[in-house]
């Protein structure tokens, strides 16, 4: 991932603590868009923090506009590490392959007011040189979900093909009537639809995330 531009944010107050954010890493297909804020979601951000399950720890160095971050995944023990401008920053996460239960990790990026560019192997000239023993994701053989193995790649959830396939449910009712409870149960019962539950509870939960 190359951070091409930190987009001007003159409309934001000068007290805005983090006007520009880029966090890169890996997540399961079932994870939310908030990289590094739930189990099996692993991110490294420009504030020199790594995170998983909302646990933020110091890692690497800060990065910003014009920097290139490479996300590396290796080994049967599944070691996740990162390069900054071609320099290895050391292991960030280690997890057991059996804990993944045969599920694949997918590239994931969280961006706020930044323009970024990806290279999965489609560029003739890469942003940085790939370390020995690694290969770009796009160059790995394609496998089905039922036979995902080491050194293969698979498809994630396909997005809607048209606006007609999008679905929005609006809950209407008095406070404490059970709207959020119903919505959370409905989302859990329909994981394939990947609902994003919006509401006061979600906002309050994110306000408690330090990092």
Automatic annotation (TrEMBL):
What biological process terms from GO does the record include? Answer: alternative mRNA splicing, via spliceosome
What keywords tag this UniProt record? Nucleus
Question: What is its subcellular localisation?
Answer: Nucleus
| Source species, domain of life | Eukaryota
Do you know which SMART domains this protein is assigned to? SPRY (SM00449)
One annotated GO molecular function: RNA binding
> Nucleus: is it a keyword of this entry?
yes
What is one GO cellular-component annotation here? Answer: nucleus
| Keyword flag Nucleus | yes
Locate the B30.2/SPRY domain: which residues? 1-125
SUPFAM superfamilies, sorted: Concanavalin A-like lectins/glucanases
Q: Which PANTHER family match?
A: HETEROGENEOUS NUCLEAR RIBONUCLEOPROTEIN U FAMILY MEMBER (PTHR12381), HETEROGENEOUS NUCLEAR RIBONUCLEOPROTEIN U-LIKE PROTEIN 1 (PTHR12381:SF41)
UniProt protein name? HNRL1 protein
* The encoding gene: Hnrnpul1
């Amino acid at each position: 991932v190359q951070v091409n531009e930190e987009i001007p944010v003159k409309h934001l107050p000068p007290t805005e603590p983090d006007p520009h954010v880029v966090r890169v890493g890996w997540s399961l297909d079932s994870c939310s868009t908030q990289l590094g804020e739930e189990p099996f979601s692993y991110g490294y951000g420009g504030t020199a923090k790594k995170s998983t399950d909302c646990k933020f720890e110091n890692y690497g160095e800060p990065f910003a506009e014009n920097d290139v971050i490479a996300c590396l995944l290796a080994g049967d023990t599944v070691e996740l590490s990162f390069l900054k401008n071609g320099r290895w920053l050391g292991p960030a996460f280690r997890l057991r392959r059996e804990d993944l239960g045969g599920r694949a990790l997918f590239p994931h990026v969280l961006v706020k007011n930044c323009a970024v560019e990806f290279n999965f192997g489609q560029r003739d000239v890469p942003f940085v040189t790939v370390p020995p023993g690694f290969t770009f994701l796009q160059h790995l053989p394609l496998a089905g979900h039922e036979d995902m193995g080491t050194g293969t790649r698979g498809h994630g959830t396909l997005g809607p093909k048209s606006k007609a396939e999008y679905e929005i449910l609006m809950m209407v009712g008095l406070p404490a009537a059970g709207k959020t409870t119903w919505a959370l149960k409905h989302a859990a019962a329909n994981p394939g639809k990947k609902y994003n539950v919006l509401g006061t509870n979600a906002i309050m939960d994110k306000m408690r995330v330090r990092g």
